Amino acid sequence: MFTSVNSRAASAYKRVAADTGVQAADPHQLVGLLFEALMQSIHRARGAMAQGEVAAKGAAIGKAVCILEEGLKAGLNMAQGGELAQNLRSIYDYSILRLTQANLRNDPAALEEVSKLIEPVAQSWKLIGGPGPAYLQPVAGRGA
To answer: What is the pTM of this model?
Structure first.
């Protein structure tokens, strides 16, 4: 019923550390954090599916879809990104479809397929390094 003070303090510390990490991150790092959270959500969904935990599976897949739709896909600059942005959008759309099917059909193979599609993109993003493209950088003297 009650959690210990140490447990509550540890949870609060983790939330503050996560919030601070996000606030201090540049656009490139934020996308990296989205990829990490996406892969963790897929992993949680896989575990919940294996354990027969329907609600946890649905929540994890829902979070993964949200990250893809509202984070990664929404962050694409279709005007400046050209063919690369189009290809990423297609990967994200297909991944959303497969995650939805994984949830409806209780299909771990669909989760694995999405992991195998996203992992190389996430790894490539890490290799790019740096703050990201100049058009994602704040204007000097404003907001940074």
So the answer is: 0.75
